[in-house]
Design goal:
Blueprint (H helix, E strand, L loop, with lengths): L3 E4 L5 E4 L1 H15 L6 H8 L16 E4 L4 E4 L1 E3 L5 H21 L8 H15 L26
Parallel strand pairs: 1-5
Antiparallel strand pairs: 1-2, 3-4
Length: 153
């Protein structure tokens, strides 16, 4: 059952199991730490996924109680809520991570390559201006984003 959501710039949504969401975010974090100006976004993204053995008991798959900030965190990332710079950094990290996942497979991440490719396909379609409803896990386009998340605002 889908329990996480990543919303792209055109409002399409990637929605799958929580574990895959966490792996995607971990790939972004790993690569952001190696990119100039990526550390602040990496630090913020680390707060969007639980620490496995510490926050496991509060994890309900769609979200968890984050003991680091003493607040509930849903597994939902609307990329439109990030600054333009952070959106670019996120996708740069994802592209680097994709290359490594394709080359190294399980030695790089436990995430299924097919799962990741589904996620990445939506990115490419969004970037190429393809209609959002042509390939989305939701039956509608996400409402416009008014939130501001992540560093740099």
């Amino acid at each position: 059952m889908a329990s996480c959501f990543i919303i792209y710039k055109d409002g399409r949504c990637f929605s799958r199991r929580w574990s895959g969401y966490d792996y995607i975010i971990k790939i972004a974090i790993t690569e952001l730490k190696l990119i100039n100006n990526g550390n602040l976004l990496a630090d913020w993204l680390e707060l969007q996924i639980p620490i496995l053995d510490v926050e496991f008991e509060s994890d309900s798959c769609y979200g968890f109680h984050n003991s680091r900030i003493d607040d509930w965190v849903n597994r939902e990332l609307d990329l439109r809520s990030l600054t333009n710079e952070n959106q670019n950094l996120f996708w740069e990290a994802i592209k680097i991570g994709r290359k490594k996942l394709l080359e190294e497979g399980e030695n790089y991440s436990d995430l299924s390559i097919d799962y990741f490719e589904d996620f990445f396909k939506m990115y490419l379609l969004s970037e190429n201006g393809q209609p959002a409803m042509e390939y989305s896990h939701w039956s509608k386009i996400a409402e416009p984003c008014v939130e501001k998340n992540g560093p740099g605002w």
